[in-house]
Structure formats: C-alpha cells, structure tokens
Amino acid sequence: MTLDHPVVSSMLPVVLLIAIGFAAGRLRLIRGEAVRDLSNLVFLVLVQALLFRTMATAHLERLDLRSVALYYIVAGAMFFALLFIQGLNSRSAVVALAAIFSNTLMIGVPLVQLAYGQAGLVHLFTLISMHALVLLTLATIVIELLVAREQAANGQQGHRPIAATVARAVKNAILHPVPLPIIAGFLYSLTGLGLHPVVERPLKLLGDAFGPVALVLVGVTLAQTAIGPHLRGATGISLLKCVVHPLLMALAGWALGFGGLALSVMVVAAALPVGANVFLFSQRYHKAEELVTASVAVSTAVAVVTVSITMALLARWNPLGG
C-alpha cells in the first residue's frame, strides 16, 4: 500500500495531527492544565461556527435523503442496542456514540473524493449535512436524560416528578453547545437570506480550524493517558466502529435493495474511525475520557486496514453502476 493509496493519503494527516499533539503534550508545550481550556475553545467556539455555518448554508430541500435515511436507522439501532447491552447510564451512552460516530469530515471527504470522485462527494455531503443534527442531537438528549436520572438517584435533584425531570433534561439537550447552533442554523437557512461574506468568512475560518485543533487536542490528551489499561476497551470500540458498523450498513442496504455508488459511500462512511466530536462529548460530560481518547487513536490506526478491505469488498460485490 503506497502513500498515494486513497486510504493512506486520507488517514496520514489525521495520524500526523494526533502525533503532533502527542509530542506537544509530552514536551509539555501544552500543559495538562490547559487541556480543559482548549477543549472549551473547540467545543464552545470552533464547533459552534462549524455547525451553524453548515446548517445555515445547506440547501436541505435539494438533498436526496433516501440514501442517508438507512444510515441513520442502522446507526440509531446500533446505538440503542449497545446502550442497553452495556447498561443504561451516561458513560455507556458516550461509549455507544463512539461506536457509531464517524470522522466523516477530516477523513471521509478526502477519502471519498479520491476513491469515488465528485459524484461520491454528493452522497457524502448529504450525509455530513445531517450527521451532527441527527446523531449528536440524539446522543445529547439521551445523555442528558441519563444524567438527570443519575442525579435523581443520587439525591441531587430531590424528589422532582418524572415529567419535570424529563422536561429539564430535554431543555438542557436543546440549550446545548451542539444542538443549539444546528437548530439556529437550520432556522436561519429557512429565511433564504444566505450568509454575507463578512460573516461567512470568519465562520468558515473558525469551522476549518475545528478538525486540526480537535485532533491535536486528542494527541495532547493521549500524551497524558496510559493507553495500556484502555487498549482492550479501545480495540473493542474500534472493531465495533470499523467492522461491525459498516457490516450492518452493508447487510441492511443489500437486504432492502440498495446498491451502486450511494450504498458504497454509506458503507465507507460507516467504516471510518471514531470522530473527534465523541472525544469532546466525553470531555464535556467527564465520562470515559481516557477510553474515548484511546479509541480515537486506535480506531484511526485500525481503519487503515479495515477501510481498505471494506473498499476492496465493495468494489467486488457492489459495482458502482448497480
């Protein structure tokens, strides 16, 4: 496999960014005390700009939702299955999110562009335009509900009625750094006004900084994390993300008669490694932080092999003209 291979050329920048962050952490160029501030910068500033701009400039009425609907059904089913298997708690929700949330932007875009061209990107951008809206909003609501239940069980909320607990959790999920800019951007897109370049350009610059800064932050955190104790768990999450997720997507697609380029792009998207947004979620809720950090790194390494195999199998069993 050469450096020109689509998988390698897409994964290598991600690996290098994590490695740069790891070196910066080990050399104490970025100290442990600064990690929380950097996490807040990424989660409360850069992600806000990325999500709002994406939704505000998306032409939702032009999107072919048929090709992505099944993707979210499969991802949602897998999320809840893992949540119930592991136990209904906020930590399990973060781990389940790691098993279904792909790095569609940093790795997916260049990979699909190199492998399938502009036609493939159309399908991927349809998926990306709703990726955060569907999966992150779903995860936020579930995690907030579970956190509320855990706080009630620990006596931190007194004897609040269940309806009030649910209402408070849903309110927290909506007034949250992830769903709020998505909803705001979607509502703004309905006006049809578009974004003036004076506003759009700084939002784009901030949004473009999200991926690199988040991955460097993963590396910094990795430098302060003992991977050994989490290697088994991270490997398990990586196999769920890079093997089980695309397998379920492929089986569901073929069972329902999907085929050709649309199915190939969806399966490849499912095969991508864990996205940095899950790392930020774990930081935000202080749940499984070290495990998720290790999973981002391990899944990226695993995906070099598994995505290559996935694409080779797709080329054989799912001709793009199908």
Automatic annotation (TrEMBL):
Subcellular location: Cell membrane
Matches recorded under InterPro entries: Mem_transp_PIN-like, Na+/solute_symporter_sf
Membrane spanning stretches: 6-25, 37-56, 68-85, 92-116, 122-148, 169-189, 209-227, 239-256, 262-280, 292-315
GO cellular component: plasma membrane
Domain of life: Bacteria
A Gene Ontology biological process term: transmembrane transport
Gene3D superfamilies per the UniProt record, alphabetical: 1.20.1530.20
Cited Pfam families: Mem_trans
Topology in membrane: Multi-pass membrane protein
Signal peptide limits: none
Record keywords: Cell membrane, Membrane, Transmembrane, Transmembrane helix, Transport
Recorded family membership: Belongs to the auxin efflux carrier (TC 2.A.69) family.
Name used for this protein in its record: Transporter
